[in-house]
Amino acid sequence: MQEVDPSSPFTGSIALVGPGAIGATIAAALHESGATPRLYGRTARDRLTVRRDGHDIVVPGPVRTDVSQVEHPADLVFLATKTTQVEAAAPWVRALTGPRTVVCVLQNGVEQQAALAPFVPADQVVPAVVWFPAEARPDGSVLLRGDARLTLPDSPAASVVARALSGTWCGVDESADFATVAWRKLLQNAVAGLMVLTGRRSGMYRRDDIAALALDYLRECLAVARAEGADLDDRVPHEILARFQSFPADLGTSILADREAGRPLEWDTRNGVVQRLGRRHGIPTPISDVIVPLLAAASDASA
Known about the structure:
Layout: E1 14-17, H1 21-32, E2 38-40, E3 47-52, E4 55-60, E5 63-64, E6 74-79, H2 86-96, E7 97-105, H3 112-116, E8 125-127, E9 129-130, E10 134-136, E11 142-144, E12 148-153, H4 156-165, E13 170-175, H5 178-192, H6 194-198, H7 208-227, H8 236-246, H9 254-261, H10 267-281, H11 286-302
Parallel strand pairs: 1-2, 1-6, 2-5, 3-11, 6-7, 7-8, 12-13
Antiparallel strand pairs: 3-4, 9-12, 10-11
């Protein structure tokens, strides 16, 4: 990846694949700054609507659904599909990616570069940790329930993403220890999987028995994260649990929304990875050994 002056404004073309809740939020931030992206996805739409701070942001479409409609590669691509949809999104990624295109992956997990390796050189892929609660609503719009922020690795490719989002209401942090940040978010995503198994939302973490289970599971995940090089201390499980307990009782998570809608679940990216890497490092994962098969079975029922 060619070095770019991080202070220079971004003037290239932007495309977004997967205009769901996360993708639509990024598209809205870019649109309000005057950098409306080209939109690509499975469902044709004339526009995207994101409700933020009590008002609607309308991002003009169309959302193109035929890969033959890609006329040329983009300079920056935001990939916001679920990890279960990477193979389906591959034709879009290939069509939109040129030799200097940066692909920012707005997906859960810690394996984004490996997942895109068959399609995009590693130095052109920027994994992102997404720190905002965006929910799809029944009418197809998106509700943003908090501030929008991304964490990116400290790299030349990531500076392209940061420049594109500079001046928008989506904040960007670049971390020299991105693995630690990504694993902390993965712990949060992993314990959120308990919502799928109970059919309950954030209020359930205020139960003493669920809180105790969540802490035990988070400690199990923490051991694997440390073996993978994450610099996370013993307070992190308690901090993550406290965060869930502070949420509105009706706040859900994307994996619960997928379960309620009968869609395949990101169980392997969010939970299976802890079990897989635990085995690689010889770390016992007794809670994962129960949770992962149950989530996999729930996903099978959704397929």
